[in-house]
Design a protein that fits this description.
Layout (H helix, E strand, L loop, with lengths): L6 E5 L6 H8 L5 E3 L16 E2 L2 E2 H6 L2 H8 L4 E6 L5 H9 L3 E7 L2 H14 L19 H25 L4 E4 L6 H10 L21 H4 L3 H9 L24 E2 L5 E3 L8 H11 L12 H10 L4 E6 L2 H14 L7 H9 L16 H19 L14 H8 L7 E4 L3 H11 L19 H4 L2 H10 L1 H7 L6
Parallel strand pairs: 1-5, 1-6, 2-5, 6-7, 9-10, 10-11
Antiparallel strand pairs: 3-4, 8-9
Length: 474
């Protein structure tokens, strides 16, 4: 029967008990854990010149050479890997189903305190209790927050990789390390028939005292951690579908090295006219229809280029999307979605385009119902696609970042002041007027706006109000 794994990796962090876990893994005859093979400061262990015949210089030049050596080692070999180890191999490790993943975790407060004590004493391993050095840690909230965020980000990356590749890992908590049955279960996971009778006794726990005895400013630490929102109670939930970069919609000037990354339902037509005026050409002469390949070519061919996006307050943006994409039938209307919103979501709009009998009160009621739909839609609670025309601007900018972030993120009410500054970045100093946006029809937002509409918009676009600091529209 063919073996399931070619090698294994222990994902851990400093002061999580990884040395002890390694010692017990090495207690199995056919297993060998090779230390921190991809530590940026040494290879395997401090003061070692190579790992499996691969020197540190060779590993740094081509890290996958060492992965190949581990795969070809006698028995089943592996190594410990921390969040700050060689990033060039992490993706291939995570995607390789023939790499067994072992994930070791520890209470982050305990690992932080242990790390602080080790820094004070210079003692990172203990084999002889008589030589134990004693010290107390001083808790620093900013330092701990950075420590915690690094651990959490790495764990989330591991979890996401396992989920998207359909793999599973063997999880070990710090407290499990003293359980020989768990160690034998790990061996079973690695398809090793041997069993340990007892655990390795060479390494000793360095700081067995309670946290109150190990931390100099324990009461200050308690007070600081009491204010920490462990359960994300203040977090704004975000269930919006992730977006990619909408590269085909990007617009470049005809001659000037300026690229516009539009946000749907925000200023777009007037920006394109302004860009055309920069070069004294018609709007039809702007460069559009990019693919990622052709956009990269444009970037390489336009040294010193600049890019920008324009945000709009969520209230007029949602109203514009409602009028253009849903209410008014025309080339920009989402006809199928319009029909579904009327039939399923009971949006109170006419079957055909609104006529002269369409009243302001009807318009207001329909827009409020549309905002209720948007709130559910961006929270992934509807069967209708979460279109960028009314998706959050924070989500759209995040999607842009999958390819390239804009140099400038401007706001609609600041365009007259900041667009000239953007133009100057690419060598255009003359005054180029900005045309006013076309009004929404059959009614403008100002015709129906009140506190209730503002409240509904704020509910639907919590993320944009938080991320961009939007206040009430008027």
């Amino acid at each position: 029967m063919s073996k399931r794994f070619d090698y294994f990796v222990v994902f851990a962090e400093m002061r999580t008990g990884s040395n002890f876990l390694e010692a017990n893994i090495n207690g199995f005859p056919a297993l060998s854990c090779l230390g921190e093979a991809f530590n940026p400061h040494f290879i395997g262990y401090p003061n070692r010149e190579d790992c499996l015949g691969v020197t540190e210089a060779a590993r740094n030049a081509e890290p996958h050479v060492l992965i190949d050596a581990v795969k070809n080692a006698q028995g089943l070999a592996g190594f410990r890997f921390f969040h700050d180890h060689e990033p060039r191999v992490l993706e291939s490790i995570l995607n390789d189903a023939r790499c067994a993943k072992i994930i070791l975790t520890r209470n982050p407060v305990e690992s932080y305190v242990s790390w602080k004590i080790a820094q004070e004493t210079g003692q990172w391993k203990l084999t002889n209790v008589a030589k134990r050095k004693d010290a107390k840690a001083t808790f620093d909230l900013k330092e701990f927050d950075a420590h915690l965020k690094a651990l959490q980000a790495f764990q989330l990356r591991l979890m996401k990789a396992l989920q998207t590749t359909g793999q599973t890992a063997f999880y070990v908590a710090y407290e499990d390390l003293q359980d020989v049955e768990v160690m034998n279960g790990l061996a079973t996971f690695l398809e090793q028939p041997d069993k340990l009778e007892r655990l390795d006794r060479n390494l000793k726990r360095q700081n067995p005292e309670s946290l109150s005895e190990k931390v100099e400013n324990f009461e200050e630490m308690e007070a600081a951690l009491a204010r920490t929102d462990h359960f994300g109670l203040t977090r704004t939930p975000n269930f919006e579908a992730r977006r990619g970069a909408a590269v085909p919609g990007y617009v470049a000037c005809a001659n000037t090295p300026l690229l516009f990354l539009p946000v749907r339902s925000a200023p777009e037509e007037e920006i394109c006219q302004w860009m055309a005026a920069l070069d004294g050409v018609s709007k039809a002469e702007l460069q559009t229809g990019f693919s990622q390949k052709t956009l990269r070519q444009w970037m390489r061919g336009n040294s010193g280029h600049r890019s920008f996006s324009v945000l709009r307050h969520p209230a007029p943006r949602a109203h514009h999307a409602f009028c253009e994409r849903i209410l008014n039938k025309g080339p920009k209307c989402f006809t199928e979605i319009r029909r579904t919103l009327r039939r399923v979501h009971k949006l109170p709009i006419p079957k055909d385009a609104p006529d002269d009998n369409w009243t302001r009160d009807e318009h207001r009621a329909a827009f409020l119902a549309f905002l209720d739909f948007v709130k559910a839609n961006v929270s992934d609670q509807t069967a209708v696609r979460a279109d960028a025309s009314w998706g959050t601007q924070a989500g759209i900018l995040q999607g842009m970042g999958n390819f390239a972030l804009p140099d400038f993120v401007l706001r609609e009410d600041e365009l007259e002041a900041y667009l000239p500054a953007v133009a100057m970045q690419v060598g255009v100093s003359r005054d180029v007027p900005l045309v006013a946006p076309a009004p929404d029809t059959p009614f403008e937002l100002s015709d129906i706006y009140d506190e209730e509409i503002e409240a509904r918009v704020a509910e639907a676009y919590q993320r944009d109000y938080l991320v961009f600091g939007f206040s009430s529209w008027k």
